[in-house]
Amino acid sequence: MITLTDMALFGRRNVQVASVPVSPKELRDQRTAACPNCGVQLKKVPGAKTKCPDCGEYMFVRTDPRINARVVVTVEQADVIDLEWAKLNGTYDDIMHERHRLEQIRVRLGPGFSEADVQWGALNERTLEAVRDGRWYDYTTLRFEMGEHLRERGSLEHAGECYLAATYLELNGPQDDRFGERFRLDPDAWGIAVDSFRDICDCLELSYREGLEQLSKQAIHEEQSLKPPMSWEAAKEAILSHIDVDTY
Question: Rounded CA gap, 55 and 74, in Å?
Answer without folding.
Answer: 12
